[in-house]
Specification:
19% strand
Length: 392
């Protein structure tokens, strides 16, 4: 079934939805994230790695100096890890704007038991841990050690996750694995990494171009890049190989405002780590510095916007949360706003994270209220919805 809607029926109320230009959205769209409270207020968040450097940058409101984020993914065959139709997570790394990276920035915030830290930070983090246990896997089987490595080496270098950015004292350097130690900085880092990973389905993008794991067939680099470019807004990704075997993909992002629940924008790279034609091995599923040119941060020319009802901001709830993961909500206490665009091909369709098709459990009757979701829940939500954008 397929439905086209001019207004979305929201579970909390039936309300019209309004757009605001990104200049105003930047000021209004960065409030409190769902699981973090009393953090630094950023009334006009800046895009990381701007073309011009502002004196006295508030590093709680803009990620600096590590402003280019790499969401990195593995294809593991020796041993074979993860689902047969999915790549696995390597990490989320804040690279410097002019190339290179910092590492292990604050040993006082090191964590040895990430799972305990996540569960102590939020009672709803068990779903996040379950997802990581399936898709963020260590070669030696010690997933918690890999997670600790990624946080200690890379997470502690994200400026907007530093203790000073949390007004309630969370992330204050009390780094034991005790369940009583609240670590919202750790929670924000792993939540955001998983969210970005879920927007970059490497396996499906390759398979749609008839690029599948094989011990016999080889693929041209240009074909791999062409298949993955749509996930990077048309830009090339970094492809890393072990000999002639395709092993790793790096996606690049810039972030507007703090990392937690912030809008992200694909970033292009100038120098790539690539190889000649090679193999994509069957099985289941740092490096040299790169230079990434800064792109103009010109909000006046952007086609991005936020949505709000008459009284409250609107967002798709991040899918890792138990509270209506993927559900579109407009609530005053929501604390986040999603960033949308308008797809101009054919009708002006509302677009979120490169998708224009959303999902519902059923077509509503006359007085029904039906939730709109960003995912189909593994095929359980059979009604597809497009929201056509019309100016008034």
């Amino acid at each position: 079934m397929f439905a086209t809607a001019l207004y979305a029926l929201i579970s909390s109320a039936i309300v019209p939805v309004y757009a605001s230009g990104e200049g105003r959205a930047a000021a209004a769209g960065y409030q409190r994230p769902i699981l973090s409270t009393q953090e630094q207020t950023c009334p006009n968040p800046q895009l990381s790695c701007p073309t011009t450097t502002t004196p006295n940058v508030d590093t709680c409101c803009v990620n600096s100096p590590g402003g280019i984020f790499l969401q990195t993914q593995f294809w593991d065959t020796s041993p074979s890890l993860g689902p047969a139709d999915s790549w696995t997570i390597h990490g989320l790394w804040p690279d410097l704007c002019n190339g290179g990276y910092e590492a292990s920035c604050d040993s006082s915030r090191d964590v040895t038991d990430i799972q305990a830290a996540l569960l102590s930070a939020s009672s709803s983090a068990s779903e996040l841990v379950d997802f990581m246990s399936e898709y963020w896997l260590s070669l030696n089987g010690d997933n918690n050690h890999l997670w600790s490595h990624e946080w200690n080496k890379h997470g502690t270098c994200v400026s907007t996750l530093e203790p000073a950015c949390y007004g309630d004292g969370d992330g204050d350097g009390n780094t034991s694995s005790s369940n009583t130690t609240s670590r919202k900085d750790v929670l924000d880092y792993f939540t955001r990494t998983v969210e970005l990973y879920r927007t970059r389905n490497t396996y499906d993008a390759l398979a749609s171009a008839n690029i599948v794991p094989s011990t016999e067939h080889t693929y041209a680099l240009r074909d791999l890049q062409a298949a993955l470019a749509p996930l990077q807004s048309g830009a090339n990704v970094t492809i890393r190989c072990d000999g002639r075997e395709f092993r790793e993909v790096w996606y690049y992002f810039r972030v507007r405002g703090p990392l937690r629940n912030a809008p992200t924008f694909s970033a292009s790279l100038k120098k790539e780590e690539i190889a000649d034609d090679g193999e994509y091995g069957s099985g289941s599923g740092g490096g040299d510095s790169i230079f990434i040119p800064a792109e103009p941060d010109n909000s006046s020319k952007s086609n991005s916007f936020t949505l709000a009802s008459r009284y409250a901001p609107c967002a798709f709830i991040p899918p890792v949360y138990q509270r209506g993961g993927g559900l579109f909500l407009c609530e005053r206490k929501l604390g986040i706003q999603s960033l949308f665009t308008s797809c101009k091909s054919g009708l002006y369709k509302l677009q979120y994270l490169d998708q224009t098709t959303f999902f519902a459990d059923k077509i509503p009757d006359k007085w029904d209220k039906v939730g709109i979701y960003s995912d189909d829940k593994g095929g359980e939500r059979t009604v597809q919805v497009e929201i056509v954008w019309q100016s008034l």
